[in-house]
Predict the 3D structure of the following.
Amino acid sequence: MYETGWTTWIQFAVFLVVGLLVYLGYGRRNSTLATAAVTTPDATDAVLQEA
């Protein structure tokens, strides 16, 4: 690992960042918590509708 050049480390870092962005983007779109928050009303909305 010590004998690799700086360009290899930069390419590796870019690869890790792209992978992290893909991972976070997929998780955000397919999260059950995110879809549950969209489909269920908020507690403050329920209070406002009763008043």
About this structure: The chain is about 80% helix and 0% strand.
